[in-house]
Design a protein that fits this description.
The chain has about 800 residues and is of the alpha+beta class. About 35% of the residues lie in helices and about 10% in strands. Helix 3 packs parallel to helix 9.
Length: about 800
């Protein structure tokens, strides 16, 4: 018989002692309360039936446990799998990064101060020294809470059961319900075989504390740079508080949540008689910041590749590759922990040469930009059309910080490609005619209802009618007229624009917090038709401003969307993982690539043709020359003085074999961004430099020869615009494929400032140079201030 441990805290005991009496007392009280209420009688009857079912199910479960008791053995320590870090590889098999929980060192539990042990007991199982290892009362309470929908009814996991689960997790993942019952059996046998302090010592060597720290010794070093035996009571409470939710209760992640949990642990320690000081967050001890380089075998997380690792974990979690938990937050945490200990090998889709080119191009643009904008940040994502492989991903230099490529930003006019495609796919010709005036009033907008084009920009490539300028849709795209794209969204329906954007690759969109509401990120996972898209539009208060990119999206989604255009309207879900194998070499996960035609090939070809014209007006050109499709995007920074300032700048584009997007903005918060001579920064400047530099080098390094786009058909009707054509009407003709000019390959240091190639099928206006102070007023580079408090898109 084990010696009796010191008691304290919540009572445990067998559930037979008082659980049924408690239920009967509540039932009698309920009967008295509802005696005169017919509907209340029905509710009470249902409660009794549910309670009876819950008890029967519990007894059946206990019977199963009893049957398994004689067939389940407690694993010996040498039967438990060793913790092995997981390694991430580039697409060519070279190492990129590794994550692994540090095994720490065994700590003799008898040498730990009493308050350290009791801090853990307070946090996880206050009846630990009294219960029999399995809290049947807690099991019943949890079962009742599950049946009645009261998720706060309490859990059923003692420290002994938690340790049993840790053992089972090491022995087998994705277990069945029957196998999970073994945890209860193991806990019962542990409690019979070992004294409480020994069980606690087992637990403290295996439990996870975030920061790659497994075991309390590793945790003490990770949080306080000292041995567990040297922890103060307050420090012990910090460490113990982390166990319940290792990420959320890490003070470097969520200080407020960590402090609240810390107070809870100290209050329990007071009840257990091991702490007698006043409890105040003012006494919260100093915790060292998380250092990824100290995580045992971990490397590569504090570089740009750290964001790739985060995306891999998210992809594996979303696809339930290593955890089946229905809660996305818990599933992500469990997936991360499985990777830190499971010894998996993950081959990613990241091309090492292209990744290097992305980092080099971003640094090139940021070096110039930071001269005026010390807080400037950039993101670059490249996706291979047809496969969905993310071949380059840059969200910043430190992969433990804020991922600029995976978080949303206002896309501005770069979003207009989806509006254009929605129009063309519904039968609107790119040669249709629209109001090209400098501004236009719309009945659905507040105030005077006007949408304004940048710098009073007008378009009259098709002449004039009744005093109004007439502009073709393709030229309105090249000049990035917000008036036309607001009207186009109104014509085809904002829900249809949203649905097409989602079909192409946009997985979420963020409302702008109009009418006093907070900005809200909406998942588009359930958008399958116009009605489901309309539901999101209604919930988010999304207006026709979606036509010119008012609502934030992520660079990752945006790159996936542009890859759909490059792939002739056929969507392939973006993926970071090629293959994952376990320690024994068995394939544990391969992506199930989703492919579907989301808009017609003729629509894609017509959009390609329009964006090729945009490229000659507002983009740096890939060297040596090849056909390219581009769209810039800039978003205005709102300020009280109505000054012309921008806060987000994009360059997005593609060739048939590769699509990529570049975003630039501030890394701390939304704020004004400037070019190198102090004027507002536009997408045609630094972002364009980065984009062309990356594409030139990456296409060369991946040996992708020049390839022409399909010939446009100019489908749809010219009569589906706002206006009719003056006579005679313009007649743009598709460009016949031309041979790619020969020339030397670009070097690794490609200069900015390329103009339109004279051999281009549509040479048009030469592209903008960052050193041209008049460039921002040219077509495709303008800005606009709408007639409300919201900022808006620029070209």
């Amino acid at each position: 018989m084990r010696p009796a441990g010191p008691g304290g805290g919540d009572g445990g005991g067998d559930f037979f002692s008082d659980s049924f009496d408690d239920i009967e007392r509540r039932d009698r009280s309920e009967r008295r309360r509802v005696a005169k209420s017919p509907s209340g009688k029905k509710r009470a009857r249902r409660r009794r039936i549910i309670a009876g079912i819950a008890v029967l199910l519990l007894l059946a479960g206990i019977g199963t446990i009893g049957g398994a008791y004689y067939f389940t053995s407690v694993p010996l320590p040498n039967e438990i799998k060793a913790q092995v870090p997981s390694t991430f590889y580039y697409s060519n098999g070279s190492q990129m990064a590794r994550i692994g929980a540090s095994n720490g060192s065994h700590v003799d539990v008898s040498k730990l101060p009493k308050y350290v042990k009791y801090a853990v007991v307070s946090a996880e199982d206050r009846s630990f020294y009294k219960n029999s290892g399995v809290d049947f009362k807690g099991i019943l309470r949890a079962a009742w809470g599950h049946v009645t929908g009261n998720e706060d009814a309490g859990g059923a996991s003692t420290i002994t059961m938690q340790y049993a689960k840790l053992i089972q997790d090491r022995l087998q993942s994705n277990r069945t319900y029957t196998e999970k019952l073994k945890e209860t059996v193991i806990a019962m046998k542990l409690d019979q075989k070992y004294d409480k302090d020994t069980i606690l010592g087992f637990y403290l060597d295996l439990v996870y504390f975030n920061r790659g720290a497994t075991g309390i010794q590793a945790a003490a070093r990770a949080y306080f740079h000292k041995d567990a035996t040297k922890l103060t009571p307050e420090e012990a409470a910090v460490v113990a508080a982390v166990i319940k939710d290792p990420t959320n209760f890490d003070p470097s992640v969520n200080k407020k949540a960590a402090e609240g949990r810390w107070e809870y642990v100290l209050e329990g320690m007071k009840k257990l008689g091991v702490y007698d000081k006043p409890i105040s967050v003012k006494n919260y001890p100093k915790v060292y910041p998380d250092d990824p380089n100290s995580h045992g075998a971990t490397f590569g997380l504090d570089k740009s590749t750290g964001f790739v690792v985060q995306q891999v974990i998210r992809e594996l979690s979303n696809n339930k590759a290593l955890s089946q938990d229905p809660d996305p937050t818990k599933r992500y945490e469990q997936t991360k922990q499985a990777l830190e200990t499971g010894g998996y090998k993950i081959t990613t889709t990241i091309n090492p040469a292209a990744q290097k080119d992305a980092i080099e191009a971003a640094h090139y643009g940021l070096k110039e930009a930071k001269a005026r904008n010390p807080k400037m940040a950039a993101a670059l994502v490249a996706v291979e059309p047809g496969t969905g492989n993310v071949i380059a991903y840059y969200g910043g230099d430190n992969g433990t910080g804020y991922d600029m490529a995976g978080n949303p930003h206002q896309p501005g006019s770069s979003f207009k490609v989806y509006t254009l495609a929605a129009g063309v796919d519904s039968g609107v010709s790119v040669k249709s005619y629209w109001n090209g005036d400098a501004d236009e009033a719309f009945p659905d907008r507040g105030g005077d209802g006007k949408v304004h084009n940048s710098d009073g920009e007008v378009c009259h490539d098709a002449g004039k009618i009744d005093g109004h300028n007439v502009c073709t849709l393709y030229n309105a795209t090249a000049m990035s007229l917000n008036t036309v794209f607001y009207a186009l969204a109104d014509k085809v329906g904002k829900a249809n624009v949203l649905k097409l954007a989602h079909d192409a690759g946009i997985n979420s969109i963020t409302s702008d917090g109009v009418n006093g509401n907070a900005p809200t990120k909406y998942s588009l996972a359930n958008v399958t038709d116009e009605q489901s898209a309309q539901d999101i539009v209604d919930k988010g208060g999304i207006g026709n401003e979606i036509g010119f990119g008012q609502y934030p999206v992520t660079p990752l989604d945006h790159a996936n969307g542009y890859a759909t255009f490059a792939n002739e309207g056929r969507y392939t879900q973006a993926t970071f993982v090629k293959k994952m194998t376990d320690q024994d070499g068995n394939v544990a996960y391969t992506p199930k690539r989703e492919h579907r035609q989301v808009f017609s090939k003729t629509t894609a070809a017509d959009v390609d043709w329009v964006l090729r014209k945009v490229a000659t007006k507002s983009s740096q050109m890939i060297q040596p020359y090849r056909q390219q499709a581009n769209k810039t995007g800039t978003w205005e920074f709102p300020n009280k003085d109505n000054k012309n300032e921008n806060s987000h700048a994009w360059m997005c584009g593609y060739v048939p074999q590769l699509a990529s997007v570049v975003w630039m903005g501030r890394k701390d918060k939304d704020g004004p961004i400037y070019n190198d001579w102090g004027a507002p920064l536009y997408g045609s400047e630094f972002p364009s430099d980065i984009w062309a530099r990356f594409m030139s080098n990456a296409l060369r390094d991946m040996n992708k020869p020049a390839q022409n786009f399909p010939t446009p058909t100019f489908s749809g009707s010219v009569d589906k615009g706002q206006m009719h054509s003056p006579s005679p009407s313009p007649s743009p003709t598709p460009s016949s494929p031309s041979p790619t000019p020969s020339g030397p390959s670009p070097s690794n240091s490609i200069p900015g400032g390329w103009g339109g190639d004279p051999n281009s099928p549509n040479p048009g206006q030469s592209s903008c140079s960052p050193w041209d102070p008049t460039c921002r007023t040219k077509p495709g580079n303008g800005n606009v201030q709408p007639n409300n408090v919201q900022p808006t898109a620029t070209g």
